[in-house]
Amino acid sequence: MKKLGPIEFSRGAFVGAALLASAYLGISAAVAQDSVDKAIDAKMSKYDAKLPLWAIQPGTAPRMIELTWYFNNMWYGAQAGNWDLARFEVYRAEETVKPIYVVRQKREATLKPWAEYALPALIKAIEAKDKKAFVKAYDEAIEGCNSCHAASSGGPLKSMAAFKITRPKAPMFSNIDFKGPKEK
Ligand code: HEC
Taking the model in full, what pTM does it have? Predict the structure, then answer.
């Protein structure tokens, strides 16, 4: 076996130390990266109005406008027996309430019970293609809109009762054929 000379030994020790140091630096860089990732996750996961990216997110009111049009399309789809169209609109209603829980946390306590009761009832009626059940679920859902409005403040208003939701009297979009393709 070859004996290790002093120079070779010190070179070996140097390489060993360098490897150890770089492993250490690698680990500490990974640890630093990990805490940066965690800090970013924390910032991105909790609403903070001081941060522009959060501040530009739509709050409750724009989502309510979306709900209003989904409920309008849904009504006319169901009335025309276009259950696919109606089904899509409930799906959109479900999707549009979820971000409110994130950006306006205080609304969750009143909005979620409505969303988890009213929307599944609509889905059930739509999937059964049951017009009577649909109308009942629809009327109950908008009753829920109104009782939540009566109990909620918004912007300068102490109560959102000013916004009374009813069955629609006209479609919002004249360029949608609510009957869909089936009666061609
Ligand atoms: C959390 C309970 C709650 C439920 C359920 C609810 N709303 Fe609202 N709605 C609010 C609040 C709160 C505001 C005011 C939002 C704000 O201040 O940004 C509002 C505002 C509105 C507005 C006014 C938006 C504007 O910018 O002019 C409309 C329209 C509206 N809602 C429609 C509906 C419809 C339609 C439904 C049911 C399909 C519904 N809402 C269900 C709480 C609710």
Answer: 0.85
